[in-house]
Amino acid sequence: MKIDVTHQISAVRRKVGKRVLEAGEARVITIGQTYDAPLDDVWDACTNAERIPRWFLPVSGDLVLGGRYQLEGNAGGTIERCDPPKSFAATWEYGGDISWIELRLTAEGEERTRFELEHIAHVDDERWAEFGPGAVGVGWDSMVMGLALHLSTGASVTPDEAMVWVASEEGRRFMTEASEAWCAASIDSGEDEQSARAAAARTTAAYTATGEEGQ
User: Fold this and answer.
1) What is the Cα–Cα distance from 144 to 23, expressed in whole angstroms?
2) Whether 131 contacts 139, CB under 8 Å
3) Does a cis peptide bond (omega within 30 degrees of 0) precede residue 38?
4) Segments in 68-133 forming alpha helices (H)
5) What is the Cα 45 distance to its own chain's centre?
6) Contact between 189 and 199 (Cβ < 8 Å)
7) Strand, coil or helix: what is 93?
8) What per-residue string of b and e applies to 114-130 under the rule 16 or more CB within 10 Å gives b?
9) DSSP bridge partners of 25
């Protein structure tokens, strides 16, 4: 598994914001990347139960409107909205918490597709202050990287291969740079710079297991 870390980090666009829902204000992180693949192919990669494990995680359930899904060892939820091949929305249920994801795909010509995913969650101020957007953002960075590799090469990456790569020097550099990029997005959203950097340092430590934390 060979990744151009610098290229992949710079290819992704990250945004941090807020949204008012019926239950109150929620945090929103948005991650996007443009792939050199046609719209229908990207949609199939994101919704076909046989392809999803090649770049993300094994998935079970009914991948249809109203159906339940479960990612192995990760989140599950209900598909609440679906507009093939442009968008879908689903709940994201993990560790007793419920949040939401929304995926949008936009054709850029015949052979390029803009991928954009929003993760919307009610996060209390204390937990946000501890880790910031990178807590989930770094994981989504890994996901869009896996999709980039799959779409560009057709390759499949097993969970074991992914774990070995994450523990490598290259993998730790990727996690570190992704965390720093989410820190920059947080600061751009108006977050206090010192607080954002401290939260990012804790996120980096958690993902790379360095044990180093910001002061």
Assistant:
1) 29
2) no
3) no
4) 125-131
5) 15
6) no
7) strand
8) bbbbbbbbebeeeebbe
9) 20
97 burial via Cβ count (<10 Å: 0-12, 13-18, 19+): exposed
- Does this model's pTM top 0.90? My answer is yes
Amino acid at 59: V
Q: HSE-up of 25 (CA within 13 Å, CB side)? A: 5
Pair of tokens at residue 62? 């009914």
State how far the alpha carbon of 9 is from the alpha carbons of 86, 109, 110, 183, in Å.
25, 23, 25, 13
Question: Which of the residues in the chain have pLDDT under 70?
Answer: 210-215
Which DSSP symbol is given to 69? Answer: E
> Could you tell me the residue ranges of all domains in the chain?
5-208
Distance, CA of 182 to CA of 12 (rounded, Å): 11
| DSSP tag of 64 | S
In angstroms, the CA 69 to CA 60 distance is: 6
CATH architecture entry for 5-208: 2-Layer Sandwich (3.30)
Q: Give the CA radius of gyration of the chain.
A: 17
Q: Which two tokens stand for residue 159?
A: 């969970």
